[in-house]
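Is this the right way to post structure tokens for a design question? Let me know if I should format differently. Anyway, here goes:
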């Protein structure tokens, strides 16, 4: 089903990387520095959010990831489906959590928001579209399977579906 404004379109990987610059929860938008997120403790300095000790003068302002968590507004959805998934669910989710831990240790805005069992699979939501893409690609590297990406520019939303 396509909406008048384009809706979710299948796209290639190159385009995917360029499209990510459009983000209303943008990490690099202008903020009076220094800033510290009161929820997760990430610090905004030199134009990016990092894990660091905030200067005493830091203002409190929620980081884009914590804002998405509060708003329940994911930037990425990774839907997992198939018989292999049902047999290896725990192992697969463990791999995704490990991958997230590595990414978020370096990039505070890249986090898994929720893992929800749906009717025919599992949906993992993320605070950042890059992480959704990376998680899906990590699954395919580890277990092969079918991978499909849909990106909506209007909504700045990435949907990845992995089936095996
Ligand atoms: Zn935060």
């Amino acid at each position: 089903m396509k909406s008048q404004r384009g809706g979710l379109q299948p796209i290639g990987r190159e385009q995917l990387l360029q499209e990510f610059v459009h983000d209303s929860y943008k990490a690099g938008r202008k903020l009076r520095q220094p800033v510290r997120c009161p929820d997760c403790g990430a610090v905004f300095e030199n134009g990016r959010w990092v894990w660091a000790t905030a200067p005493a003068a830091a203002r409190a302002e929620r980081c884009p990831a914590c804002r998405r968590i509060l708003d329940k507004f994911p930037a990425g959805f990774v839907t997992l489906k198939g018989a292999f998934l049902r047999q290896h669910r725990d192992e697969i989710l463990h791999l995704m959590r490990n991958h997230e831990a590595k990414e978020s240790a370096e990039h505070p805005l890249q986090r898994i928001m929720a893992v929800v069992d749906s009717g025919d699979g599992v949906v993992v939501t993320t605070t950042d579209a890059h992480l959704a893409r990376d998680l899906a690609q990590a699954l395919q590297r580890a277990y092969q399977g079918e991978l499909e990406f849909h990106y909506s520019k209007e909504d700045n939303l990435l949907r990845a579906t992995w089936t095996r």
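Format looks fine. Someone answered above. Worth noting: The pocket of zinc ion is lined by residues 37, 39-40, 42, 62-63, 65-66 (CB under 6 Å). The beta strands are 9-10, 35-36, 43-45, 48-50, 59-60, 76-81, 112-118, 121-126, 146-152, 157-163.
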